[in-house]
Design brief:
By secondary structure, the protein is an alpha/beta fold. Helix content is 35%, strand content 23%. Strand 11, helix 12 and strand 12 form a beta-alpha-beta unit. The longest helix is centred in the last third of the chain and has 21 residues. Bound molecules: adenosine-5'-triphosphate. Keywords: ATP-binding, Nucleotide-binding, Transport.
Length: 372
């Protein structure tokens, strides 16, 4: 657990970057600091490992007052990842990752073995081990940055805009990998971003700061989207928040079974399996390939890949209602395709079925609130 207790940071020129911050970041969870430029996110983060000293107040790491621990001892238990990864340009990837273990006196062989293990963990090709940072893409460098921070297996990780310098596709990949890694490692993480979408995707809890370093709201992502505490937070959380909150809403849908066809089937088979003029093609493992419009299949013609409409998104059956609604809205047949964990077809739902489910859940919640 990391606890901020009335923490203030006033820089020598009089700038108050953080003003009376009280906050608890629970162990094993991701706490995201988000807010507009200059609101004190980085200052707050760097006070935890004492790269910046608080002017007043206390930051606790479990039951230790961090102000009373030797700063380098403190930092050894805290991984630190920054934007652009901050790698040493003249050291190979394997040596970059081994930095902290070597500082801690591990022998070279053990430190390198640990580096290679971590490269695999963060999804880096082991062939990169002997390269230098400049020979890697931005996204790959960020993975090295994460691996380096994890090298000594610190219980706490501080991450300052670690994925901001890469394009949106790579960024989404890094976020997904990061969440997968965290589900295995369960570190106590403070993550700084100015991007509210990243905050609600990654955070177990999100702290919204306003300029002047004042905490505006500390909440779960779902609470933040559905119940912003004031106009500043509502504005910062942004538009479409009702819809985005559905990303945290799961609920049991009852998908309709769907008859399917295979590639190479003929127009007669397709016609028999079709509903409302559309039929879903699947592969041998029943993974959806795309929808076929039966009217486009002249008699005697077999189902081939050029006839597949691939626009519809697939939603995991145990996933969010937002995913299911998107699957229905994006499906050329109007029927959203739900799949199991292996990606195999479970059945389909329409948008109105998903909306009915959403309305029932929200009504149930309103009743519980007004009843209690
Ligand atoms: N060394 C310093 N001396 C004086 N003022 C500083 C110093 N470092 C930061 N500040 C000021 O403190 C405030 C908070 O800065 P900080 O870097 O913590 O904000 P931030 O929320 O991380 O911003 P950004 O999202 O732009 O990185 C800003 O007004 C900044 O100008």
């Amino acid at each position: 657990m990391i606890k901020f207790d009335s923490v203030v940071k006033k820089y020598p020129d009089g700038t108050v970057a953080v003003n009376g911050l009280d906050l608890v970041a629970p162990s094993g969870k991701i706490t995201v600091f988000v807010g507009p430029s200059g609101c004190g996110k980085t200052t707050s983060l760097r006070m935890i490992n004492r790269m910046i000293e608080p002017t007043s107040g206390t930051i606790w790491l479990d039951d230790q007052d961090t102000g009373k621990v030797d700063a380098s001892t403190l930092r050894r238990g805290i991984g630190y990842v920054i934007q652009h990864a901050g790698l040493f340009p003249h050291r190979t990837i394997v040596d970059n990752i081994a930095t902290v273990p070597l500082l801690m006196g591990w022998d070279k062989k053990k430190a390198r073995a640990r580096s290679l293990e971590l490269m695999e963990r963060v999804g880096l090709d082991p062939n990169f081990a002997k390269r230098y940072p400049a020979q890697l893409s931005g996204g790959q460098q960020q993975r090295v940055g994460v691996a380096r921070a994890l090298a000594a297996d610190p219980p706490v990780m501080l991450m300052d805009e670690p994925f901001s310098a890469v394009d949106p596709v790579v960024r989404a990949e890094l976020q997904d990998e990061f969440l997968r890694l965290q589900s295995e490692l369960g570190k106590t993480i403070i993550f700084v971003t100015h991007d509210i979408d990243e905050a609600v995707k990654l955070g177990d809890q999100v702290a919204v700061l306003r300029v002047g370093g004042v905490l505006a709201q500390l909440a779960t992502p779902a609470e933040l989207l559905t119940d912003p505490v004031d106009d500043f937070v509502a504005g910062f959380v942004g538009r479409d928040r009702g819809y985005r909150a559905l990303g945290f809403e799961t609920g049991s849908l009852s998908p309709e079974p769907e008859q399917t066809i295979r590639m190479g089937d003929d127009a007669v088979a397709a016609g028999r399996a079709a509903r409302d003029g559309w039929v879903l093609a699947v592969d041998d493992a029943r993974r959806p390939l795309g929808w076929v419009r039966v009217a486009a299949l002249s008699s005697g013609k077999a189902v081939a890949s050029d006839l597949l409409h691939r626009g519809g998104t697939l939603a995991p059956v145990s996933g969010s209602l937002r995913g299911a609604l998107d699957a229905a809205l994006s499906s050329p047949s109007g029927r959203g395709v739900l799949v199991d964990e292996a990606g195999a077809l479970v059945g389909t739902v329409t948008a109105s079925e998903v909306v009915t489910r959403i309305e029932a859940q929200l009504a149930g919640r309103r009743e519980a609130v007004s009843g209690g």
